[in-house]
Amino acid sequence: MGKLWQIFTAFFKIGAFTFGGGYAMIPLIQKEMVERRHWVEDEDILEIVAIAESTPGPIAVNASTFVGYRVAGFWGAFFGTFGMILPSFAIIIAISFALRAFQELQAVQYAFMGIRAGVLALMLRALFMMYRQTKKSILAYLVMAAAFILTAFLDINVLCVIIGCAVLGVVVSCNAKLREKLCGEPETVQDGREKK
Amino acid sequence: MTFFELFWTFLKIGAFTFGGGYAMLPLITAEVEVHGWMSEQALVNFIAVSESTPGPFAINIATYVGTEVGGIAGAVCATLGVTLPSFVIILIIAKCYQRFQNSRLVKGCMSGLKPAVVGLIGASVVSVGATVFVPDGISVSIFWGPAFYISAGIFVLAVILAFRKVHPILIICISAVLGVAAGYAFRV
């Protein structure tokens, strides 16, 4: 029981103090889980990031479930995830009642008029960062353009777009000819990082 | 019925979003619109709230939509829904992650999904951009009102700050202050 409580409080702290979602939380997890409690190793953290990236859902939930499971099995995963979610959950419920009480105020409406423009800028920056991180190939450009146009302008169901892109990825990677054409060089050469 | 719909909708969202936060937005917008749960403007407002409160975006937005639609019970249903797929999938993978990481199928999927995330975030930018600049649809009259120019001015400033790596919360605060000041000055 002691260990489960520790897992719960550790992730509660992480959930309560990270702003900006998933990736911002990785250093905190590393500090709390590796350096302070020695529950997992540094390599495990890399693994967590890799796995969180290739599974659906919020990175925070992926990470807390994975670490919790590593430390104490199913209940570890359960209490880790529960602890991670609880702060957000409580804070947002409080805020949504506050928002409802104040949203009619003229000043609040003006503030949100400004804030919406600010948020758009933040999203543009996130878009730019994600674009830079993506490995460039003909396939990547094709998929980017297709996902963008289908979702933004043609009103295609987003689920279909996501599934379609995944299937296309599988088809291309299973077909050597297609892979060479659309992904550039064969895989072994491609591993080197892009030069700046 | 509403509670089940909240749960089911966010279960889908949790099961099909890769790459976190903003990539999730087109799916959330579409679902919220289909169900008529809230306006897109309210959703965009909430993105800012989520940026300035701790915790993962997905949990924040699920809790918020859930609360707005069905009170605290609604929030529980939506949050449970968005969490469950990851939780189950990770439990399964935690046992055999080596095989999972090296699987050709997974690699293939990711080679399609990673760039798709970029496209989806691009689509979010377009739809949020429409909400910011032409909230009532495109017409000539928007160019008459000061609201359009105020938004444009704040947007340009915020872009400059964002690309200079100013902290997001600071950018949101600055935008809010400018919005209030300009709003009262021009009586939008």
Q: What features would you describe in this structure?
A:
The complex is a heterodimer of chains A (196) and B (188). By secondary structure, chain A is mainly alpha-helical. Chain A has three domains: 2-102, no CATH class; 105-133; 135-196, no CATH class. Helix content of chain A is 81%, strand content 0%. Chain A has helices spanning 2-17, 22-36, 42-53, 59-102, 106-133, 138-152, 158-174, 176-182, 187-190. The longest helix of chain A has 44 residues, at 59-102. Chain B is mainly α. Chain B folds into two domains: 2-133, no CATH class; 136-188, no CATH class. Chain B is built from eight helices and no strands. Chain B has helices spanning 2-16, 25-35, 40-51, 57-95, 97-102, 104-133, 146-163, 168-186. In chain B, helix 1 (2-16) crosses helix 4 and helix 7 runs antiparallel to helix 8. Chain B is globular and about 60 Å long. Chain B starts with a helix and ends with a helix. The mean pLDDT of chain B is 83. At the A-B interface, helix 1, helix 2, helix 3, helix 4 and helix 5 of A face helix 1, helix 2, helix 3, helix 4 and helix 5 of B.
